[in-house]
Amino acid sequence: MKARIRPMTAEDKPAIVDIVRSVREFSPEEVAVAEELLDAHLDAPVTSGYLVLAADVNGVVTGYVCYGPAPLTEGTWDIYWVAVDPGAQGQGVGRALMAAAESSIRKSRGRLVLVETSGRPDYARTRQFYRSIGYRQTGRIADFYSPGDDKLILEKRF
Ligand SMILES: CC(C)(COP(=O)(O)OP(=O)(O)OC[C@H]1O[C@@H](n2cnc3c(N)ncnc32)[C@H](O)[C@@H]1OP(=O)(O)O)[C@@H](O)C(=O)NCCC(=O)NCCS
Which residue from 22, 96, 116, 144 lies 20 to 30 Å from 29 (Cα-Cα)? Predict the structure, then answer.
């Protein structure tokens, strides 16, 4: 699937929120936080610290990534959110989004990219996704999200 990766515009917001809602791994609370980050970006694209890229497939937004510089660090960046429409997953859109975010991070002289994800069985595919694009696990906080649901910290260095 050929996706054009471009900065998000205000018109993209409903489509992105729909995607986040339709991803079954995300809880309603997570959907709300994802939407807050989109609003923070749209309100102050430069100063909010949240950058958002959308994947555009023939004029239809099929995924997005939200990322930004980790406050009070030199060259460390966080990937806050990445999601692809369930109907378009497994076709290279997530990989293209992450490649574009990493390219923008490199241009801003970022050197370390961190991602947090869950150790739950239903996130196995997500973990495989990050592994396949070069992220390795650098930490695990047991029972972080809830008893039995660990937080995994993954990293990639340039
Ligand atoms: C994780 C996610 C963003 C990946 O995006 P995607 O477009 O589906 O992934 P891609 O098609 O670019 O796949 C890239 C790699 O991920 C892995 N992958 C993707 N789909 C997979 C599947 N169904 N099973 C196993 N591995 C898979 C593969 O290693 C693939 O590499 P390959 O194309 O060389 O085989 C997307 O599946 C998604 O939105 N998932 C739900 C939300 C989520 O978990 N977000 C991350 C929160 S921390």
Answer: 96
Mean pLDDT by groups of 10 residues along the chain of 158 residues:
95 98 92 96 95 97 98 97 96 98 98 97 95 98 96 97
Q: How many angstroms is it from 84 CA to the middle of ligand 1?
A: 8
Does the C-beta of 9 come closer than 6 Å to ligand 1? no
Could you tell me if the CB of 119 is within 6 A of ligand 1? no
Query: Residue 93: CB within 6 Å of ligand 1?
Result: yes
Answer yes or no: pTM beyond 0.85.
yes
